[in-house]
Fold this sequence. Notes:
Elements lengths: L2 E7 L3 H14 L4 E7 L6 H8 L4 E4 L5 H11 L5 E5 L3 E3 L4 H10 L3 E14 L2 E8 L7 E3 L5 E3 L2 E2 L2 E2 L10 E2 L7 E5 H7 L11 H11 L3 E12 L10 H25 L4 H28 L3 H17 L20 H8 L3 H8 L4
Parallel strand pairs: 1-2, 1-4, 2-3, 6-14
Antiparallel strand pairs: 4-13, 5-14, 6-7, 6-13, 8-9, 10-11, 12-14
Helix pairs in contact: 1-2, 6-7, 7-8, 7-9, 8-9
Amino acid sequence: MRTAVVILNWNTREYLMAFLPALLGSLGKDDRLFVADSGSTDGSMEMMADEFPAVKTIPLGDNYGFTGGYNRALEGLEADYFVLINSDVLVSPGWLEPLVSWMESHPQCGICGPKLLGLVKEAEGYRKTGNFEYAGAAGGWVDAWGFPFCRGRVLNRVCADEGQYDSPARVLWCTGACLMVRSSVWKALGGLDDRFFAHMEEIDLCWRAQLAGWEVTVVPQSVVWHLGGGTLEPKSPWKLELNYRNNLLLLENNLAATYVAAGIPEGRAAARARRRITIRRGIDTLTRIIYFCTGRSAYAAAVRKAHEGYRRLRRRGQAAPPVAVPAGIARICIIPAAFLYRDGIFNHLDKKIFSI
């Protein structure tokens, strides 16, 4: 099998019915679609049996999150490439071939992903937009403090796709909404970090892949549209908790090794990473105070729980020696830059960071 395309489903029957036909129609003879189910109770699997009987389903029996679900679903699959794709993604007819072609012509690339545009739900169905979508836009970076941003998305602001990011580019991460990874790389890295459960796990996977010597590339000749928010509401306190917690786990996993890869001695690299994470936790605490003082006590509690979860889940083990310095880490502070430049932030990043 060339490509195993895997959807991890949890109570998204409506999306499967809406978006599976296009996905199935886009696959080649050596590609196969799988739907892994995380113990859905909305009739998803019954619908799959009735409407898409040729699609193999993988019942997981319970909800292990994005990380545990995909780790279990891919465990028994054999293919050259794995594609992780959300159930709320609408693909274009030729979306898969540019990704496969890039992998085959660039053996140093371990992970790649498409350009991600927005999809909007309307009364009569779904409408494609010409704007980038929050979850990954045209490839992701992180700033000096580990805050993620994208080519085409900064904080909650997205810009229009005007072809400005239509050249393949090395990035730190590609969106987990639609991500292709060599199966050999997936297995060598041990898949996703189970501790994350959901959110930022793809950034961690891509960062670890780069430290291991692989490139991560966005291939904008492949285009998909993403609805977003299909599992957790954008303003969910739990989503906020996962993001704050996992951002710290992300830095704990990768920051010291990144410094070592840049030539800093191991002891100094570990100390520098600890200092940076401590300051980052201070930034989070300031945000928590702001949430509390502005009447958003549920968000303030989410940040507190995130830090408690981080302390509980963090590991102090020695990571594998890094092989390469990752691309896609910017020496800027994206939050103040976003407030300073406002709608001009994209032009600023294009000139100063992305060199467009």
